[in-house]
Amino acid sequence: MASRSSANHWPRINIGTVVYWLLQFLGWGFYFYAQASGEVIFAQVPWSKASTLWGGVCLTGIALTHLLRWLIKRQGWLALKPGALMGRILAAVLIIAVIAYLNTLVLSEAVYGTLVTPIAAAFYQRLNLEGQLRNQFIFMLLVHGAWVAVYLAIAIQRHRYRAELRQAQLGEALRAAELRLLQSQLNPHFLFNALNGLRSLIADDPGRARDAVTQLARTMRYSLASGDEDLVSLERELEMVEDYLALESMRLEDRLRIERHIETDARAARLPAMLLQTLVENAIKHGIAELKPGGTLRIAAKLERGQLVLTVVNPRPANPPPARGDGVGLRNASQRLRLMFGDRASLQLDLSTPGQATAEARLPA
Amino acid sequence: MKTLIVDDEPLARRELRRLLGAIHGIEVVGEAGNIDDARMRIEELAPEVVFLDIQMPGGSGFDLLAQLERVPRVIFTTAYDQYAVKAFDVNALDYLLKPIEPERLAAALRKLQAAAPPDAGAASPGAPLEQLFVRDGHRCWFVPLREVSVISSEGNYVRLLWGRERPLLGRSLAALEQKLDPRRFFRANRRQLINLDYVAQVELGEGGRLHVQLRDGPEIEISRRQARLFRARG
Fold this sequence. Notes:
The structure holds two protein chains of two kinds.
Chain A: H1 2-5, H2 15-43, H3 47-75, H4 82-112, H5 118-123, H6 129-182, H7 188-204, H8 206-225, E1 231-233, H9 234-252, E2 256-262, E3 270-272, H10 275-286, E4 295-304, E5 307-315, H11 328-341, E6 346-350, E7 356-364
Helix pairs in contact in A: 2-3, 3-4, 4-6, 6-11, 7-8, 7-9, 8-9, 9-10
Chain B: E1 2-6, H1 10-21, E2 27-32, H2 35-45, E3 49-53, H3 61-67, E4 73-78, H4 82-86, E5 94-97, H5 102-115, E6 131-136, E7 139-144, E8 148-154, E9 157-162, E10 168-169, H6 173-179, E11 185-187, E12 192-195, E13 199-204, E14 210-214, E15 219-222, H7 224-233
Parallel strand pairs in B: 1-2, 1-3, 3-4, 4-5
Antiparallel strand pairs in B: 6-7, 8-9, 8-12, 9-10, 11-12, 13-14, 14-15
């Protein structure tokens, strides 16, 4: 518990609390000065008496309103529906005003020997005692009501802001979770087929088997790290794709032929990890692996008007069999792009040419 | 036991060949890399057992079985499609997960030999069919013909009455009839074959027709022409 015991940590000061006390003292200080000086000027009473009376009224006011603030926070009134909040606030203001009024009567009686404060008496000369007292009460109601109105205006604003902030943070967390969910994982079918091929290679070609183990390890490590939101360079992604293709070539042998057209300046462009791999995997799974003679996989990458354009072209069966889990990988990749880049990225699969599939991803370079 | 290996990956075929080489009594008579080659090899070599991959170019292992007249005993090999094999409703087939474990392979072969007599299956091309592979929609079955009570013609298809299932098979009644055991299946009328083992009761009908009540099944009418043959069989 080292962090707790250290004496050189200042207690955390809440900026909101500071502002609250500042406003409290400014508001009540202004009210004190206006009332006390007014009483001295209009009722010709000594400053000592006026300041005692209004000092007492203001200190009580601070205590009562602070108590109300404590109650509002403790009971979570700000989270209430407007109607429920309004009812409670009106009741609280009424109770506070009654206490403040009674307090004023007591203080006035003690200081001046009259229930009506001299300033009220000076202002409401034409009213009888009853009228003056009624006005004195209404005045307390207005002062404390004004305090509550200002307090609520600020507090509700802050409450709403925090709620929106929380909402935004929640949305961000959801988006991150969604991205993790959409993370492209290695297809288990690929994994087990690769292991099966590997088992055979161990007897046939131990050197090639050792290479394949390394390629498989690198591929898996890369895939596991792809959940991060961080972008990788195309160069890095291509290394992984080459490992992946080497393993697929082990299974498909000469049925898989590969052509690469990678522009040099595109290699530094950044993309979500596993994006190109997903396109390549899809091309092999639904295209080349479905064809008896196999086919040529074409991978191209270029920069075009500030965009990285990845294109994967593959032959495919003219009459594709009813597909199993078709396009889930591509759909996830597309959603992932949308979450990360919005409208600035796209992923399209073009099947308009019979016997051929073209997948194209565009994203800001 | 004559064995055929069907898998599109040369490495996988080599591996299985190596594994089978260590098992006594197994003779690998051939290999195929897609279902068209596989169909030809099966017809030509009449293997008793086929090791069958599920995902292959040009069609799946299930497609192959659906095309075969005479279905040999099958052990599926799969990297990850065991769910597809498990989707078989009844008389589940055995399957091996790749990479194949030698012990599991030996156990599967023992189970296969214990389950069916060695003379059944595709070994004797002239013998009547004992089972059919049926695929209806997404469901697949190996249907033992002794458990089928009625086979009805529906256009170019036939529908099997098999327990509570009514699978449809893409063959004509006449073509199928030639492959069946005539001691078991009898042509009741133009549209129906009945399994004589299921006959519970026979009643005389009008004009020399017969009404046959099948055990756990419907009543079938035997046409006048066939009724004479039916009586002749006693």
